[in-house]
Write a structure and sequence with these properties.
Layout: E1 4-7, E2 12-15, E3 20-22, E4 38-40, E5 44-46, E6 54-58, E7 65-67, E8 77-82, E9 91-94, E10 101-110, E11 116-120, E12 127-130, E13 143-150, E14 153-162, E15 170-171
Parallel strand pairs: 4-6, 5-7, 6-8, 7-9, 10-14
Antiparallel strand pairs: 1-2, 2-3, 8-13, 9-12, 10-11, 12-15, 13-14
Length: 175
């Protein structure tokens, strides 16, 4: 027998055994299925705000290039995890346009001294490059999180591992 199931904690309801909907009639099934929050990055991926709270796997040996949506202060968040260490090219996360920038810090573990170094985004930095060496993407599990905190600004934080003479993963390449 089909029924209505209501979860007051998340403000959602379910008709029978179908999808979950919020009070505006929007499908919120992702809230109840954590596996749907993980997405393959593939070789290239352009994200939209509808992908909010997704964990994107940087998962190709030839590198993954991800483009974020334009920053507007929406609060949208994404997490990027190195799930395949690239053997050619780089894993790259970049903003959508020349007006958006990153603000924040990425920490990296040095292979030379097992020290942790920190790199802050510069005033015009709009690209994060993990180049399989000096800027990261040397081990599976490295991660970067970004959040759309205001118009033209993505807050960023993360932890990577680097080899050789470590360098900042931040640069200004979007025009």
């Amino acid at each position: 027998m089909a029924g209505i199931w209501i979860d007051p904690d998340v403000g959602a309801f379910r008709l029978g055994s179908g999808a979950f909907y919020n009070d505006a009639g929007v499908d919120v099934s992702d809230l109840f299925d954590p596996s749907s929050r993980i997405s393959a990055g593939g070789s290239t991926l352009t994200l939209t705000s509808a992908s909010d709270s997704k964990t994107i796997m940087l998962d190709t040996l030839a590198g993954t290039v991800v483009t974020l949506p334009a920053a507007s202060g929406s609060g949208v968040r994404f997490k990027f995890v190195v799930s395949a260490v690239a053997t050619s090219n780089s894993h790259i996360v970049k903003v959508a346009n020349a007006s958006d920038t990153f603000k924040g810090v990425i920490l990296t573990l040095s292979d030379d001294s097992a020290a942790v170094l920190g790199y802050a985004a510069g005033a015009s930095d709009d690209t994060i490059t993990l180049n399989r060496g000096t800027t990261g993407s040397t081990i599976v599990g490295e991660w970067i999180e970004v959040e759309d905190i205001k118009a033209n600004v993505w807050a960023v934080r993360g932890v990577t591992a680097s080899t050789g003479t470590e360098a900042t993963p931040f640069s200004a390449t979007v025009s």
